[in-house]
Amino acid sequence: MSLDASTTLAPAADALPKPLPGRDTVIQYGMALLTVVLIAAPLLPVLYQSMLDRALYDSGQQFTLSNFGRLFHTDGFGLVIWNTFVFATLTTLISQTLGTLAAVLFGRTDMPFARLFGELFLWPIYLSALVLSFGWYTIYGPAGYLTLLMQSIFDGAPWNLYSLPGMAMIAGVSQAPVAYIYCMSSASITDPTLEEAARVAGAGTLRTLSRITLPLLLPAIAYSAVLNFTVGLELLAIPLVFGDPAGITVLTTFLYNNGVASARPDHGLVATAAVLMFAVVCVLVWLQGRLLGNTRRFVTLGGKATRPRPFRLNRLRWPLCVFSAIYITATVVMPIGALLLRAFTSLLSPMVPITDVLTFSNFASMLEYPVYPRSIWNSFIVSTLGGAVATAMVGLIAIIVLRSDFRWRAPLHYVALFPRAVPGVVAGIGFFYAFALVPGLGGLRNTIWILVAAFTMHFIPVGLGAVAPMLLQMSPDFDRAARTQGADWWTTSRRIVLPLLRPALVACFIILFITFFKEYTTAIFLFAPGSEVIGTTLLQAWTQGEVGLVSALATVQVMVIGICVTAARAFLGVKLYG
Amino acid sequence: MAELLIENLHKRFGPVKAIEDVNIRVADGEFVTLLGPSGCGKSTTLGAIAGLDQPTSGRIRVGNKTYFDGDKAIFLPPEARNCGLVFQSYALWPHMTVYDNVVFPLKLRRVSTADCKRRVEESLALVEMERFQDRYPHQLSGGQQQRVALARTLVYQPEILLLDEPLSNLDAKLRDRARTWLAELRTRLGLTTIYVTHDQVEALALSDRIVVMNGGRISQIGAPQEIYTRPADSFVADFIGTTNFLNGEVVGAPGGDGQTLVSLSDGQRVLIKSDKRPSLGDKVTFAYRPEQMRLATPNDPAIGGSIIEADVVSHSYVGGRWQVGLNVGGNQIRIETQDATTDRQLRLWLPLTGGILFTERTHGKSH
């Protein structure tokens, strides 16, 4: 490496780069302001309305606290609270049991087809609970395929979806993947030598499982339990499809019936119930934070990427495999399969041979009414454009919060994660009020842009979850190098950080696309003729009893999401969930 | 190119003092190394010069430009300083080719396209990487990446050059070659350079002056030879080179000839000449470099030094010579010999002059 003495650098007098003064500050403050406004938009009107004696768009309002008293004296409200609590608790119990069992069985044993079962087990998380409900209805509903089969053999089916345990079963299956994912990721960072040490010390499979593996999973189980309890409180689809006809009301359906479905909504009451729900969820989200903070006691050192040795099931391998196959078929494959099949038949019954009823008429009649193709088109627009807008916003928030010296970056981080504590129904009602309250926004009220705003606000934390890990792993030296060479923060972000972040931003877009595409809770409070999305038309068709149409629409949704998930995983290597 | 002046620099992280009262003046074109163990504050000092860390108080000035002044609340952002910083991780942007990496600072300075091309080529030629312009960083070896990182910094001719352990990610052979190369380059460029390392060999070989740091404070500033031969305290003596420490008590205070008689804990006595003047009964530490000690023959007269008995505790071949671990009254010391020895006990000759006497007590390195 000797140097040629002639090579040297000619002296040069470069002007130092002159970045636009204050540009960084303007971008950072602007983005922070936009985030705060977007997140406060639905919350402040709800709080405001809950303390008014009449609708917030009327004139002559008086501040009052009487709404709270009125709510608790409403007939049956106590029962609503009780139902909500029972439903959420049962849902949590079922999802945690199923999720933990699946994580151990599919993730940690030598059971045949464990990986395939693991993949199928995750499927409910890609679909909306609404679609899963319709799938279960097709199989286990009063005229469902298996129900009829059971009736023809025995005297009736032993299940009833129109009950709290029935609803909780569907919700449990739909939420079990969350518990599964948390247990799996906890297991994958656990040092496998902990288990090996127990075995070397003479512990058998069962003892190692119960004394080492499961206790190490406890934080994951506890954290996802709080998460699932929260989801159980916020869930609208299942209580709406199965609870309402049976007269079982929970808090979400209470809000829906009094806010959207009612001819003369009592806004004071609705807003107050929403505030109540918001407060409870706030406490639960705080509890999630506490649980995560307290997990240090269970932190396992090492964390190497070695795969732990699977537990040997020996003689139980095949029996457990058959059992798992039955479970997966009964809860995931059959409901989804039957729903898809129903879309291509005029009816689905064990008494009628399937070849007699095959038809495309469901899709034909779906295309006949303009509202259905329009809702599909709107869903595409909302998911694509909205997903892009939301991704841009999430990307900017992430680099401001994690990669800038912005003075308020810690509070901004807190605010950006706050929508986790805002249930979809509350966000829906809140945006509805916000657009009614603020003059000048009325024009947007019947367009899909109100949906884009609401979805974006509601799912900013989801997007951050997709982007933040990669940003945290990226060496800060990359930005520091650019800064010392004379690039200001925004140039550094544009030329270095954001290009490097592209894989995470793509993953974020795909996750948000899927989430927006299946979202219905927020939408049903906000849609208007012309701005329907698949979620809302699904519910409309359901209310009209058009099961064939519902199946056809659900098929479109399942297909689009299926293609997205498969393509993202196959071509982009994007890791979706876990 | 300019003079760097750091005055009364402090940096606190909450109650932790990362650097405390650091004062350094680096002349124009001087090469100064910040040397110390991890956590000594050398990287924090470098970050403060580059503008990546904001100090708590003090002043930093380069040429006539004030980078930081705690009293006047001046803090220039890194992009306004025109420093050149080469990172330990090199921080080459993985989504850009070598050319795009090196041209980036020129584009920021709105240099014309033709000039850009010429200067990138010059700069890459300087580090002998001109043939790799179209490669991506991941297609280069560690040593090549390091040179591109240097070219990217030199291309815009920064006021001062900051090097953060640039050789530490190279393997031992490559590190030797890169060090020689860097020494040649620095002589020719004559840039004011601050070099951060924990490797004393690099520091001794490259620097005009070395700043030894410990626990956020400066222990000693001096030329390499001065630091090696006259360490200011036992920390510096311990950190630079291999040093054997002996603890003892003064039993004969220095007279007019400056000779102090020290008794080790096992009663053996050593005579040492020093400009320090401890009093009778003081606890003292004295240090010898391994090359200053030798084994004494059975009838060796203790001329020009002292002879002490030492127990052999370990004995290992280190290639070409033997390393012998000894215990002298509870002090662990290490010497190197040409021949193997089977003795349980050895006699050690210590010189009268050359050893260093410290009046503060230390345990030295535990081997």
TrEMBL record, chain A:
<keyword id="KW-0812">Transmembrane</keyword>
<keyword id="KW-0472">Membrane</keyword>
<dbReference type="InterPro" id="IPR000515">
    <property type="entry name" value="MetI-like"/>
</dbReference>
<keyword id="KW-1003">Cell membrane</keyword>
<feature type="transmembrane region" description="Helical">
    <location>
        <begin position="216"/>
        <end position="242"/>
    </location>
</feature>
<feature type="transmembrane region" description="Helical">
    <location>
        <begin position="268"/>
        <end position="287"/>
    </location>
</feature>
<feature type="transmembrane region" description="Helical">
    <location>
        <begin position="414"/>
        <end position="436"/>
    </location>
</feature>
<protein>
    <submittedName>
        <fullName>ABC transporter permease</fullName>
    </submittedName>
</protein>
<keyword id="KW-0813">Transport</keyword>
<feature type="domain" description="ABC transmembrane type-1">
    <location>
        <begin position="376"/>
        <end position="568"/>
    </location>
</feature>
<feature type="transmembrane region" description="Helical">
    <location>
        <begin position="120"/>
        <end position="139"/>
    </location>
</feature>
<feature type="transmembrane region" description="Helical">
    <location>
        <begin position="26"/>
        <end position="48"/>
    </location>
</feature>
<comment type="similarity">
    <text>Belongs to the binding-protein-dependent transport system permease family.</text>
</comment>
<keyword id="KW-0997">Cell inner membrane</keyword>
<dbReference type="Pfam" id="PF00528">
    <property type="entry name" value="BPD_transp_1"/>
</dbReference>
<feature type="transmembrane region" description="Helical">
    <location>
        <begin position="376"/>
        <end position="402"/>
    </location>
</feature>
<dbReference type="GO" id="GO:0005886">
    <property type="term" value="C:plasma membrane"/>
</dbReference>
<dbReference type="GO" id="GO:0055085">
    <property type="term" value="P:transmembrane transport"/>
</dbReference>
<dbReference type="InterPro" id="IPR035906">
    <property type="entry name" value="MetI-like_sf"/>
</dbReference>
<feature type="transmembrane region" description="Helical">
    <location>
        <begin position="448"/>
        <end position="472"/>
    </location>
</feature>
<feature type="transmembrane region" description="Helical">
    <location>
        <begin position="504"/>
        <end position="528"/>
    </location>
</feature>
<feature type="transmembrane region" description="Helical">
    <location>
        <begin position="80"/>
        <end position="108"/>
    </location>
</feature>
UniProtKB/TrEMBL annotation, chain B:
<keyword id="KW-0813">Transport</keyword>
<comment type="similarity">
    <text>Belongs to the ABC transporter superfamily.</text>
</comment>
<dbReference type="InterPro" id="IPR050093">
    <property type="entry name" value="ABC_SmlMolc_Importer"/>
</dbReference>
<feature type="domain" description="ABC transporter">
    <location>
        <begin position="4"/>
        <end position="240"/>
    </location>
</feature>
<protein>
    <submittedName>
        <fullName>ABC transporter ATP-binding protein</fullName>
    </submittedName>
</protein>
<dbReference type="GO" id="GO:0016887">
    <property type="term" value="F:ATP hydrolysis activity"/>
</dbReference>
<dbReference type="Pfam" id="PF00005">
    <property type="entry name" value="ABC_tran"/>
</dbReference>
<comment type="function">
    <text>Involved in beta-(1--&gt;2)glucan export. Transmembrane domains (TMD) form a pore in the inner membrane and the ATP-binding domain (NBD) is responsible for energy generation.</text>
</comment>
<keyword id="KW-0067">ATP-binding</keyword>
<dbReference type="InterPro" id="IPR027417">
    <property type="entry name" value="P-loop_NTPase"/>
</dbReference>
<dbReference type="GO" id="GO:0015697">
    <property type="term" value="P:quaternary ammonium group transport"/>
</dbReference>
<dbReference type="InterPro" id="IPR017871">
    <property type="entry name" value="ABC_transporter-like_CS"/>
</dbReference>
<dbReference type="InterPro" id="IPR003439">
    <property type="entry name" value="ABC_transporter-like_ATP-bd"/>
</dbReference>
<dbReference type="InterPro" id="IPR003593">
    <property type="entry name" value="AAA+_ATPase"/>
</dbReference>
<dbReference type="InterPro" id="IPR008995">
    <property type="entry name" value="Mo/tungstate-bd_C_term_dom"/>
</dbReference>
<keyword id="KW-0547">Nucleotide-binding</keyword>
<dbReference type="GO" id="GO:0005524">
    <property type="term" value="F:ATP binding"/>
</dbReference>
